[in-house]
Design brief:
By secondary structure, the chain is of the alpha/beta class. Strands 3-2-1-4-5-6 form a six-stranded mixed beta sheet, with helices on both faces. The radius of gyration is 42 Å and the shape is elongated.
């Protein structure tokens, strides 16, 4: 017996036709699928690029802010430090300190020291000009004193004895000293002056760059940067000159005059010649530093003080230049020994 609630159902089957390779229907389906993949790939790349741009912008902004803050802090710190340093370096040493330094320097028993009147003359000028650029020809027992009195400035020493420089450097940290090779000799003074006078407008002219000078009296083997310094004060206390074969101070006095005349800022240079009472020092000072530039009030018998204005004639050192010959026989031998000569000889060091 059939159930009346059951309704007959009809199922229809449609045949599936697989597109043949190369047919238009397959091609269109393939292109549609490939197109969707390209769109999806493009959207993914665009999203990734946007994310990278956002991250880079955030990182750059943070870095810029950090660098800006660091630069501001650095600038503030640098400005503060510079201001403090400038204030410190422009403050001269108290007068009681200067007097104490001079007292102990003048009363030492060291060989070859300056007399007290010369030390005070140099100290007074240095106190007035300092802190400044100070160039000293010759190392001596007064070397620490000049460094102390020029506190805040630059003090450079030149000496012909490399062993003495090596001896002092560990004992005075911060000492700036260079060894110099001199080709002059005391016995050749007349020949050197004659050559300098003959080439006054060429090789030995008063205004020139010493580094490139062809003059026999020029000190041109220093570090290059020293020739670019405008020296405010030059103390000639070397090289040695106690024998006829010693270098003498002809080259150092000539080079001091050229440095003073050739400075670029138009300023004045104070040149002091120690042992001024001796014939060679006085003759060379009159020849290149000139008597009209000597300051009588601050000079002593053994210390000549000259103030040299930069510029001037390019073919003459002095306005009242003379070509008088020099009588070598009248030049007295120097007796001021180098402060380390005994120590050097005891160690069998050979002086250059």
């Amino acid at each position: 017996m059939k159930n009346p609630n059951i309704t007959p159902k009809l199922i229809l089957f449609h045949p599936f036709h697989k597109p043949a390779p190369g047919s238009s229907t397959g091609i269109f389906s393939y292109l549609a699928s490939h197109h969707r993949l390209l769109i999806l790939l493009f959207i993914s790349c665009f999203t990734f690029a946007s994310l990278l741009t956002f991250l880079y912008s955030t990182s750059t902004s943070s870095s810029t802010f950090t660098d800006s803050s660091h630069t501001t802090d650095t600038f503030t710190a640098t400005t503060t430090t510079t201001t403090i340093a400038a204030a410190a370096t422009t403050t001269p040493l108290p007068l009681p300190v200067v007097d104490a330094l001079i007292h102990y320097a003048a009363n030492t028993n060291a060989t070859g020291r300056m007399i007290e009147s010369d030390i005070r003359a140099v100290a007074n000028i240095l106190r007035r000009r300092g802190p400044c650029n100070l160039l000293v020809f010759g190392l001596s027992v007064e070397t620490p004193l000049w460094i102390a009195l020029n506190s805040g400035g630059r003090t450079v020493f030149l000496d012909e004895n490399q062993y003495y420089i090596a001896y002092l450097e560990p004992r005075h940290p911060g000492l700036e000293a260079y060894d110099v090779t001199y080709t002059t000799r005391v016995r050749d003074l007349q020949e050197l002056l004659s050559t300098a006078r003959a080439t006054r407008a060429t090789d030995c002219r008063p205004i020139q760059h010493l580094l490139f000078s062809e003059c026999r009296l020029a000190v041109n083997d220093l570090p290059n940067h020293l020739y670019d310094v405008d020296w405010d004060m030059i103390l000639v206390d070397g090289p040695s000159g106690w024998m006829q074969t010693s270098p003498g101070r002809t080259a150092s006095i000539f080079s001091s005059a050229v440095m003073a005349r050739s400075r670029r800022d138009g300023g004045k240079t104070e040149v002091l010649v120690h042992d001024y009472q001796f014939g060679l020092e006085k003759t060379c000072a009159h020849e290149f530093l000139c008597e009209e530039n000597r300051i009588e009030e601050s000079s002593t018998e053994s210390l000549g003080h000259f103030i040299i204005q930069s510029g001037g004639p390019r073919d003459a050192f002095c306005f009242n230049a003379t070509d008088d010959g020099v009588n070598i026989g009248r030049l007295r031998a120097r007796t001021r020994a180098h402060p380390l000569i005994t120590k050097v000889r005891s160690r069998r060091w050979e002086r250059r």
